[in-house]
Amino acid sequence: MAPAGTLRGQIAEAGPAVTVHNADIAATFEKVADLLEIEGANAFRVRAWRKAAQTIAALPRKLSDMVGAGEDLRELPGIGEDLAARIAEIVDTGKLALLEEIERRTPGDLAELMDLPGLGPKRVLALHETLGVTGIEDVLRAARTGALRKLPGFGPKLQEQILHALTTRGAGEKRMRLMVASAIADDLLGHLRTAPGIGEVAVAGSFRRRKETVGDLDLLASGSTPARIVDHFMTQEDIAAVVEKGGTRATVILRGGLQVDLRAVPAESFGATLQYLTGSKAHNVALRRLARADGLKLNEYGIFRNRDQLAGRTEEDVYAMLGLPWIPPELRENQGEIEAAREGRLPRLVTRADIRGDLHIHTRASDGSATLAGMAAAARALGYEYIAITEHSQRVTVAHGLDETRLAEQIDEIDALNATLKDLAILKGVEVDILEDGSLDLPDSILRRLDIVLGAVHSAFGLDRDAQTDRLLRAMDNPNLNLIAHPTGRLIGRRDAMEIDMPRLIDGAARRGVFLEINGQPDRLDLDDRHCHMAKLAGLRMALSTDAHRPSDLEFMAGAVDQARRGWIEAGDVLNTKPLGQLRKLLKR
DNA sequence: GCCGTTTTCGGCCCGACTGTTTTCAGTCG
Questions:
Q1: Which of residues 252-271 of A touch strand B (CB under 7 A)?
Q2: Most C-beta atoms within 10 A of its C-beta, which of A117, A292, A293, A364?
Q3: Separation of CA A425 and C1' B6 in angstroms?
Q4: Structural domains in chain A?
């Protein structure tokens, strides 16, 4: 391949000047919503911009592509004629005239003030009009001089709260990886279960929806005397600060910085509260609209007709009262799941029990810590029918990647072990490096002898979108390649996903009979939920794998299953739900 | 600004807690 610089230069000349990402458009829409709200615009108009921003942020396809193809954006939920034109404007020009117009009216950055606790549109406007505040620095000054607390509607408590937030900014506001939050949640639930008169307990929120990271934990508990449950919860020793506390609700900050919300309700409302706290917000709003349409009211205590509670004890009752089957929490993002439920076409999401094997495993031959026999034993203990051993290739020297000779030795070793195993098949594989030019790091002569070949990128993550996509497609041109491992290379919170034209990659994989991996490592979860859904819509099968480097890592399968479920993936979409015979056929290109 | 088994106008989810109030607005989830 030509040097990357040359290729980039050619593409820059031929392609569009700038690529506008969906996230940029969503951020622009959010900013418009903030500023309109501060200006006192119609609340429903503000909501329309926010709803559109959510739709855009969760969209599995690139808006710039859709605009380029002349598609009708008004078919997207919450996008009408006006907002469709605004999107096209941003895609075409990289700017939004309306936002520039509003910014001329409201100097500085008033929108960012909305992020401060206790500051909403009304108080931000008051700050601007009475003190001439235009940004964070002005607020800090007003709080320090004491001018802030003298304003009507403000007070010493609020001033102190804002000052505290401004001086400790950046600390503890990072989202936490799901697996880390799990351990904390277990402790908190254990403590809650010892409360007097306790009934059921649960974790709701984005944790229950299995989002890859959580910003806080939402706990709920049922019991005869909610206030006593809240009181008991406050005795948890990890609590560093109490943000608020009432008779049914409390918000606290743990020592580690994680925010935890607790809601305590009577048993007859547990299901409704679980539903309400699980969200997402957009899903809940949509459900409440459904309820209203039937002359009902849905809140966190149940479904009501006038004063009569019709449902609320279980989530199933709540959904049933709205004419819907129970919807798995992973789907509750208002991304079509309510319509699917109503029409009886909810997916039967893949479960851990559907998984028959793990197709991405390392041993100490490369950078794993266990022996081949050790990993095989751990897999048998999980009841797997098969596993694939997939070491790194020679290029990854820090991981003791295998060259042709060492891989040949491992092939013999696996053959020998297979001969002694009755209830587990070990597939001979490799995680071969995809080099910068798209070639593979081992010769075809050895790849041909393997049952499964994963290709993976471990270098040159920074290529531009077209070069990176071309690189992966070129790797897939090698008929020995079966699967792209951790396709985007992201490390949550540490390294961004590579720039990849995902629709083109998915289409290319489908055409070539190549599959994509959903890597279950807690900091990878790659493909992510949106890309999973995109791949499913394209009819592409995926492998759910752990990339295990030690026996306990095989448990990472849970994370891969979570991502898959959020992406609407069913057992039939997954390679490693197939019996060994079928799997082998699918691995023949 | 969007949307429609309430359909082109008139609606748009709902409640808890706090702080600043003297009966409730604002914020948050």
A1: 261
A2: A364
A3: 61
A4: 4-105 (1.10.150.110), 110-167 (1.10.150.20), 175-263 (3.30.460.10), 266-346 (3.30.210.10), 352-586 (3.20.20.140)
